[in-house]
Design a protein that fits this description.
This protein has one helix at about 55-80; strands at about 1-5, 10-15, 20-25, 40-45, 45-55. The protein is α+β, with helices and mostly antiparallel strands and about 80 residues long.
Length: about 80
């Protein structure tokens, strides 16, 4: 997953269950990626060899987070009405 862009030229990836950090050149990433996108990452000797956008997992995460946000907003509305 793309954790963040540190500047115009570098990105921090969190890879695997342990979310190990890898710093990569932004040019090594697909053009259309953004923070929070999930990726297929190939490592060799602890080096990032290739990166590809995982559209399916990214979409699932966006939907899951959106649903959680909707539930939180609804809970907030219900609390206001209860007062």
């Amino acid at each position: 997953m793309i954790d963040r862009f540190e500047d115009q030229n570098h990105a921090v990836l969190l890879v695997g269950k342990d979310e190990k950090e890898y710093h990569v050149s932004r040019t090594s990433l697909p053009d259309d990626v953004k923070e929070g996108n999930h990726l297929f990452v190939v490592l060799e000797n602890e080096q990032v060899i290739s990166v590809e956008l995982d559209k399916e997992t990214t979409t699932e995460a966006v939907n899951r987070i959106g649903n959680k946000m909707d539930k939180l907003r609804e809970m907030k509305r219900m609390k206001r009405r209860a007062k």
